[in-house]
Amino acid sequence: MKVKEVADVVGISVRTLHHYDEIGLLVPEETTEAGYRLYSDDNLAMLQQILFFRELGFPLKQIKEIIGSPSFDRQEALALHRKMLLEKRNQLDRMIATIDKTMLHAKGEIEMTNKEKFVGFDFSHNPYEQEARERWGNKAVDEANAKVGSMSKEEQQALGERMNEIYRNLASLRHQPPESAETQAGIQEWYDFLQSMGGRYTLDAFKGLGQMYVDDERFTRNIDKFGEGLAAFMRDAMAIYADRNEPK
């Protein structure tokens, strides 16, 4: 199949396929003397595998490392995709149920506790870990993961609730100026929380993390669940915090 035919069948752009070829992620079976890329059935099977990884939030660099490994097993990978997608579907089902209840609550037909309003949100698994490693190195991530891993289930739940509490507080402040005293106090809590996790973020890394909340739409989508515009607000407030606390 030619590149345009593959793009039409799959529903992705020709430019994406060209990019995958350029970075060595998906190299066509053959390129004609005229420069036409020709894709085989094996190419299409690998493309399906790549898109499963992309759907689950894996960055292209990590996908290339995984599928290029001598130990890569396609059947094992498919089984893993299925397991992860089922977990994702279950979480989405819980969130949909929360939306349904919230609609009824808004109409006055039922009562919801604050805890019930956030059923389905799950930040215990970090799908962006590889990107964090690439940006700030392994040490901060490994220390944070080790600390969480040593906690009991109850401690991990309490940690998640504390994180959500900080997000909710910042969401309630997002219409204030990011440099306001209240906002900066909330950002101080967020900085202290990250440090308590063993992350040991420098102020520059903390500022960069805030920028990623906006640059990466997946971060934006998750954070803005607590309030529209929260990711951009936190980005601005975290930058101000870092600049103000940078040693002179």
From TrEMBL:
Residues 1-69 form the HTH merR-type domain. It comes from the Bacteria. This is HTH-type transcriptional activator mta. It comes from Paenibacillus allorhizosphaerae.
